[in-house]
Each structure stands twice: as structure tokens, then as C-alpha cells.
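Q: I'm a student working through a structural biology exercise. My instructor gave each of us a protein and asked us to get a predicted structure, then write a short paragraph describing it. Mine is FP protein C-terminal domain-containing protein. I'm not confident about reading structure output yet, so if you can add a plain explanation after the C-alpha cells, that would really help. Here is the sequence I was given:
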Amino acid sequence: MSQTLMLENLLVLINKIFTAIDLTLREEFIFDCYRILPKKNVKTAFSPPIIVKLTSNLYKKDILRQKKLKKNNLKLDLLDGESGGQPIYINELMSPFNNRLFKEAKIYQSQGKIKYVWFNNNNVKIRISDNSQIKLIKSLEDFDKIFKATKKDVSNVLLSEDDVEYGYPDSDFSSTSQASTSSKLKKRKVKPHGTMDLFLRPHPKNLPKPKV
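A: Happy to help. First, here is the predicted structure for FP protein C-terminal domain-containing protein. I'll explain a few features afterward.
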């Protein structure tokens, strides 16, 4: 581990990033934050990503919304002052299962069978065309139902930063649960409702974005 990473204060870095997108850092909504450090003897040109676990789904949406509005402000220079304008990426963190579903959807998109693929609120969503309904992909079997096609290798599919963002209107498929209106509320331990991953990596060319 480098001396720089050992001494850094992640909350200070996160505050600088949030300030750049005109958002107030709310530490009471941060459950945990840490870097995913590279393996020993593995060299990489990119900074290890920072994982920020949140206790508020609404705060997560605020972050993603401001990220989209102030995207041009997210430059690595605001952290070190000498990175030549390299971008900072803020994305929702996918689980391995959702990552597999997303890559499968991108395969169908590359074949022209899906026009839009995106990840939002811990869900993989697709639209076959501009006028079709939004479909929520919960399993690989959902692709069979829609296309009845043979699965193909997805190991080399690249994810674009624009595919994983709060950039497409939420639909009725949203998985966010509603708060109970019962008067007999019980105290419970606060648990993270979602995670954010700050990616520092190049921006690959991607397929068409959803029309908002």
C-alpha cells in the first residue's frame, strides 16, 4: 500500500467531490467508506475506486442527480491539482449478479435487439425501442422470455459510465420500498440501502443513451 493511500482522509476527498457538484456532504447518511486496494505486485494506471455505503436511498439519488447536472465539474484535478483534467466517475455499485445481467443485456444491445440498457436503483432496465415499455431484468430467464435466444459469452463486455447512472426516468418497476404508516413503529438498526462507487477510469465509447 502506498504511503499516500495510507495517509489520505476519504471523507475529505468525498467532500471535495460533492462540493464540485453543489452537494452538501451529509456524514450522518454515510455508513462506511473505503478504497478497494489493488492486489500486491499488480500495477494499474488508475486510482483504486472508493466505495461509499449510504443509509439513505434519497441521498443516493441526490448524488446521482447532481452528478449528471454537474458532470463537467468532476475532474481529478480538484483532488490533486495536477491530473490534466482526467474525469471522476460516480456510479451505483453493481452486485456480481446484476453485473452478469447487465453484461447479458449489453450483448443483446450490440446485436440490435435492445435499444437502451441502463442500471438504476439497483435494477437492470431495458427498452426494446423508443416506444416500448421499460422492462426490469431480474434473471437470465427474462431474456429467454423476451428473445428465446442462445446465451453468449459476456466476459469481454465493457460497462460504460453512462449506462450506470441516475439518468433515465424511474418507472413503476422501481424497487424502492415505501415506509410503513403503522403507528407502532419499532426501533431497528439502520442498514445501508444502497452503495455508490466512485470510478476513476477512461470513458469508453458506448452505445446510444436513453432519450429523456
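A: Here are two points you could use in your paragraph. Helices lie at 3-7, 10-20, 57-69, 77-80, 96-110, 141-147. Residues 165-193, 198-212 have pLDDT under 50 and may be disordered. It's a good idea to check both against the output above yourself.
Q: Great, thank you!
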